[in-house]
Amino acid sequence: xxEKEKKNPVPTVDILIEIGDGIVLIxxxxxxxxxxxxxxxxxxxxxxxxxAAREAKEEIxxxxxxxxxxxxxxxxxxxxRGHTISTVFIAKASGTPKGADDAKNAAIFQExxxxxxxxxxxxxxxxxxxxYKKTGxxxxx
Length: 141
Known about the structure:
By secondary structure, this protein is an alpha+beta fold. It has helices spanning 48-60, 122-135; strands at 10-19, 22-28, 35-36, 39-41, 65-73, 84-92, 103-109. The chain has a single domain, classed as Nucleoside Triphosphate Pyrophosphohydrolase (Alpha-Beta Complex). 31% of the residues are buried.
């Protein structure tokens, strides 16, 4: 009997980009459709930090300054396309975000006017982020 092919989770990054008093979200061009935190897959040989800066530039056409990591999210069901592990960064940028690459649109939102639907586990990540900004308490899992 042949051994099962070993599969590993795929590393990804998501970037909570602060502009003024809001956060940048993108409307996805590709399935799953909806609104998401900018981010994507880490390329082989690329650090998480480099991937985060690259993905932000590709998706919202702005350079970002990474500030800190918020948390890593690893629920195998977080992405219906496959098991991913996302390291989430908080970053700052200035300017007007413009959707590019796999982002159909990009816009700035506040906690009180988030768009719907939010895809993946991004509603939870945003909840954790806003809680952290108010209290300084990071997610505990």
